[in-house]
Design a protein that fits this description.
seven-stranded parallel sheet; globular; 11 helices; alpha/beta; three-stranded mixed sheet; Rossmann fold
């Protein structure tokens, strides 16, 4: 089965790519000319150079493909030029979905995010049906993913696009080469540089379980439906405490109020703009997001897809081990 995957050089994409190869797919990967290819080393995959914003390259990449896994996304909580993130996540997603429809692709798995979902004020886990509006989206990343998923759902309903949507929570594990914002937090803790924390919570999941969830969505998912791929809801203090056990560093002892961290985030972003740094360590949107418990339920994926996730402690161990083995710490 000829399958095109986007984002294969990235964190989630490289895990999905490995799962596709293991399942016997004949995989073609669309990568940009300047993509970091370390996650592709040694894998049997056909590489095609292109860009989500180059429609001709999308038609070329999709030629002869029966299946599309669209995993690529610009995952940054701070961008000096916000239009870049919308161009990739919204316009790029729409372009490849329309190209796939024209190419006659029979099944699509689209990687969205729990960032597009609502949250419950009482802190209880949200699900695929928890109501949310665009006005509640904090930051350009969340807004762009919300708009992109809305376009994908519109195409599924109005034009019969054969797409299944998956919404990973916060994946952790090996091959986080950038690293992602969650990976950066783990890296700071693994390096002993995170003695303080704020009151917040995340749903963590092993990146390889997310990849398995993509395959299960491809095999068993219902067209037009979305599925949360998550595992364990943990407060940030709990996450950092587990990381302290793994790394041997002291557990965090200082709880910082959000309103104290916010001015630091503004200053960090200003410094990043002045110096041309890629992303500040603390971002305004990150602090604002931290005011909510981002807890989610993956019961629908368990019931309909047969999704299972390993203990999160294994994911944290794998993440720390990979960062250490690859010289990040």
């Amino acid at each position: 089965m000829k399958t095109l995957i986007t984002g294969a050089s990235g964190f989630i994409g490289s895990a999905v790519l490995r799962r596709l190869i293991h399942a016997g797919h004949n995989v073609r990967a669309l990568i940009r000319p300047n993509s970091d290819r370390r996650n592709l080393d040694g894998l049997e995959v056909e590489l095609v150079i292109g860009d989500l914003n180059d429609r001709s390259s999308l038609h070329h990449a999709l030629a002869g493909c029966e299946v599309l896994f669209h995993v690529a996304a610009d995952y940054r909580l701070w961008v000096p030029r916000p239009d870049e993130i919308y161009q990739t996540n919204v316009a790029g997603t729409l372009s490849i979905m329309l190209a796939a429809a024209r190419a006659g692709v029979s099944r699509i798995v689209y990687t969205s995010s729990v960032a597009t979902l609502g949250s419950n004020q009482d802190g209880s886990p949200a699900d695929e049906n928890t109501p949310v509006t665009f006005a509640e989206m904090i930051g350009h990343y969340k807004r762009s993913k919300y708009l992109a998923e809305a376009e994908v759902r519109r195409l599924a309903i109005k034009q019969g696009l054969p797409v299944i949507i998956v919404n990973p929570s916060a994946p952790v594990g090996p091959r986080d080469i950038k690293p992602t914002p969650t990976g950066q937090m783990i890296l700071q803790a693994a390096s002993g540089r995170m003695p303080a924390y704020v009151d917040t919570g995340l749903n963590l999941v092993h990146v390889d379980d997310v990849a398995t969830g993509h395959m299960l969505a491809f095999e068993h998912g219902r067209i037009g439906q979305r599925y949360i791929l998550g595992a364990c809801n943990m407060t940030l203090k709990e996450i950092l405490t587990e990381l302290a056990k793994i790394t041997g560093h002291p557990r965090p002892w200082l709880r910082l109020p959000h309103n104290l961290v916010l001015p630091i985030a503004y200053a960090a972003e200003t410094w990043a703009r002045m110096t041309g740094r890629r992303e500040p360590l603390v971002t305004v949107d990150g602090v604002r997001l931290a005011k909510k418990l981002m807890f989610f339920s993956h019961k629908k994926a368990v019931k309909e897809l047969g999704f299972k996730a390993r203990p999160v402690i294994d994911a944290l161990r794998d993440a720390v081990g990979w960062f250490r083995e690859n010289g990040y710490c």
